TrEMBL record, chains A, B:
Protein name: fumarylacetoacetase
EC numbers: 3.7.1.2
Single GO BP term: L-phenylalanine catabolic process
Residues that coordinate or bind Mg(2+): 225, 245, 249
Organism field: Streptomyces lacrimifluminis
InterPro entries: Fumarylacetoacetase, Fumarylacetoacetase-like_C, Fumarylacetoacetase_C_sf, Fumarylacetoacetase_N, Fumarylacetoacetase_N_sf
């Protein structure tokens, strides 16, 4: 039967099982869904039909109760789901609860508590340094190799894949402009990132150690941190990005549990500087993830950023974010920062790909420095799975609409 | 009868009526309360007893439903509350619903959505510029007079007045240190601010104009944006403050509705630079508020920052924050930035008051550059009210406990 019979090699086979929130065709009801191939399993209905003790966690309109349930529940539920979609005796019960992906509406899968964005790719940071501070002795700021630089973003404008992005307006001022100008951004960019979703909260005053990462973080998703470079350049000294980023951040509709990515775990790049004990992961389990990202504009692939090259791991970011005693809440989201590999075709932003607009990309739709209205950007990714399989991450798609 | 008979001149008389959330003595139940003198009125119970149509908004464990109800409801409810606590015929009904303030527990009054902090005092910005960039031609950055600089903070660590603040640990590196050090902050500071609370949300892509300020903002409170200057100094280039601020932000337990502050509205300082149309308030109603703040350490007043000197108004901050299309949510909180007046005794941070630790304050408890463990900081404020009265803002109190 087709829903169970996911084609060999499908990156959304039963080895993956990412979570989202969907409405069935013709309904506005929101339900937790689990993706299987080109179908979505109504997880709450399946839990009820099969007598799962986790029905109260799964029969909900958002992933937050699942996120809050903690690691033991996450493992139990994943084990149960795997059985539901693979054991033949469940097929008659489960098959009617599978909805074709093409027929459902996908929603932002969880309520975002705090949103933090990092800056953890050395290639990205060096490219940005060379572009904006060409005369500096070092393209990295002095703190870069000692701590994962991050800042808070706007959680209220995190949107699900497929949501249109209105071109933001704002102030900009080139060094040659006598006064600031106001208008639609003319340097609208993407940032290809990976977002990490916190499940288990922590208490104020209690830092989360490197080794507790997997007790607190439920899973990950692709994330596009849309950036208006002209607005950002004028506003960001001295307190950091604000309106250049806060208009929209897109995440995939599917949250991939860390448990699906066991085979993708790898050591991060060799550390070039000694780290303070709370960040020193030399004796820890591998903290990196081998995720192969693709960036496409209007269907044309422009870059393939390798997440394996990130200098700072998600576990280090979590340890840093809480070392001052800041607490975590269920639904906290943090972005890795733009993922850029060492070569030109591996850069995760147009800023880098076009070297600040000086080297336009020649795309089928025409030359591009930054995004034009109606451009559609799609991020996709996969990771190595068990037995040579691929684990697909949910795509992040967004189309630019004209300034309002 | 005492509860109704608030003493003449009490800054929490019936002309004020700020909102909070309390638990009665011996209960963990949370209820919306309205402060009257030294008592708290159980607003939901009063609404029920007096047949108010707003019982569903007031008989709740948080202010969020009231915040979301919108300006017309805010005015109606305030009018009703005023009658309940002043019309003699209501006294028998209302008196039993008044709890002595000393007997109740006060809670964080609303669920904070996004938290943004601004940098809107010219005196503060110039002091900081002179301290950190003594050789710069202008103590203000080039953008300062063109836009209200702001950044996002951590909403999950906003705490109510009275909550202890654990001294944060983190990385610091003085220019003379060969490598960063880790340990408890040795430059723990305060920032005396005013926080604005958003009630009515807005849609993505739809900026909120200057004149719509009072349709969206419900009220204000005092806010202490605790800051670890040593952590901040090492981390903040290039993406702004992060761990130097994210460990705690304290707000008062009482939210003063804007409707209680009509007599405190004043014009902001004269603008020295032309403003872009979306920020130009020359033809708008007065956007400033005459709030007289006091900062005390261990009961000793060290400063009296005047909010009337703020260059950027809360209406301008709201217009700026949304001009790129960023949406507002009920419960969004934004801080004014440190309030500093032109004279030494009007500075809102120890950084300024001690000129970065070079001029210690001589307090009864001993000399202070930055905060020591067990120091308790209290912010209080009042504003001119009708007929020569004073409108009190709820205090913000916090004691420093040793690093964990």
């Amino acid at each position: 039967m087709p829903p169970f019979d996911v084609p060999e090699g499908d990156p959304f086979g039963p080895h993956n099982l990412p979570y989202g929130v969907f409405s069935p065709a013709g309904s506005t009801d929101r339900r937790v869904g689990v993706r299987l191939g080109d179908h979505v399993l109504d997880a709450g209905a399946a839990a009820a039909a099969l007598g799962s003790p986790y029905v109260s966690v799964l029969a909900r309109p958002t992933l937050n109760p699942l996120l809050a349930a903690g690691r033991t529940a996450w493992s139990d539920i994943r084990r149960a789901l795997t059985a539901w979609v693979t054991v033949p005796s469940h097929q008659d019960t489960v098959a009617p609860l599978l909805h074709p992906l093409s027929a459902v509406t996908l929603h932002l899968p969880f309520e975002v508590a705090d949103y933090v964005d990092f800056y953890a790719s050395e290639n990205h940071a060096r490219n940005v340094g060379q572009i904006f501070r060409p005369d500096a002795a070092d393209s990295l700021t002095p703190n870069w190799k000692h701590l994962p630089i991050g800042y808070h973003g706007r959680s209220g404008t995190v949107v699900v894949s497929g949501t249109d992005v209105v071109r933001p307006s704002g102030q900009r001022k080139a060094p040659t402009d006598p006064v600031p100008l106001f208008g639609p951004s003319v340097r609208l960019d993407i940032e290809a990132e990976v977002g990490f979703v916190v499940g288990t909260p922590s208490s104020m005053g209690s830092p989360v150690t490197l080794s507790a990462f997997r007790d607190h973080v439920f899973g990950l998703c692709l994330l596009n941190d849309w950036s208006a470079r002209d607005i950002q350049a004028w506003e960001y000294v001295p307190l950091g990005p604000f309106l250049g980023k806060s208009f929209a951040t897109s995440v995939s509709a599917w949250i991939t549990p860390l448990d699906a990515l066991e085979d993708a775990r790898i050591a991060p790049p060799a550390r070039t500087h000694p780290l303070l004990p709370y960040l020193d992961d030399a004796e820890e389990e591998p903290g990196g993830y081998d995720l192969r990202i693709s960036v496409a504009v209007n269907g044309h692939t422009i870059s393939e950023p390798p997440f394996s090259t990130m200098y700072w791991t998600a576990a280090q970011q979590l340890a840093h974010m809480t070392v001052n005693g800041a607490s975590l809440r269920t639904g906290d989201l943090y972005g890795s920062g733009t993922v850029s590999g060492p070569t030109e075709r591996e850069r995760g932003s147009l800023l880098e790909l076009t070297w600040n607009g000086t080297a336009p990309l020649d795309l089928p739709a025409g030359k591009r420095t930054f995004l034009e209205d109606d451009d559609e950007v799609t991020l996709t990714a996969w990771a190595p799975g068990p037995n040579g399989t691929r684990v697909g991450l949910g795509e992040v798609r967004g189309r630019i609409t004209p300034a309002s």
